[in-house]
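Assess this:
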Amino acid sequence: MVVKSFEDLEIWQGARELCKDIYTIARKEEFSKDILINREKDLFGMYLTNHPVLEYKLKNNDCINLCDIDKYFNKVVNTIVMIDSIKEIKTKKGETMQFINASDEEESMEYVLFPKTYLLYNDLKKGDIIKIEGRVERRSNYQIIISKIWRLS
């Protein structure tokens, strides 16, 4: 609004005083880091701030990035990932095993938890940040056969 006269200025200030009573901004606490990154992922489909695994990867120099997995075919590697989904199935022998889809800050990958290893690590859930030791294999895509898991979060 362009103020052309003193009367215009008084009208504008009066309107501002009226609006001050109608519109107030409530001060709230900032969301926790976990809630904030989950809402970013839900809303944008990606993380705008750091991926949740990044702070753990900085402390673990022995872990590879999933984007480099093709260089480690048929080798045992360590990765730090966040679980995106878990699919549990029964084998022909009736034993339970899992296919875990997990991601780091750059890629997503499938991990396989066979029945004997599943018995040791059957309490995993979506959102867990874990360090995995496993062998890189390739069927149609690369996947990691899990031998050990360390829960980081």
Observations:
- The chain is about 25% helix and 30% strand.
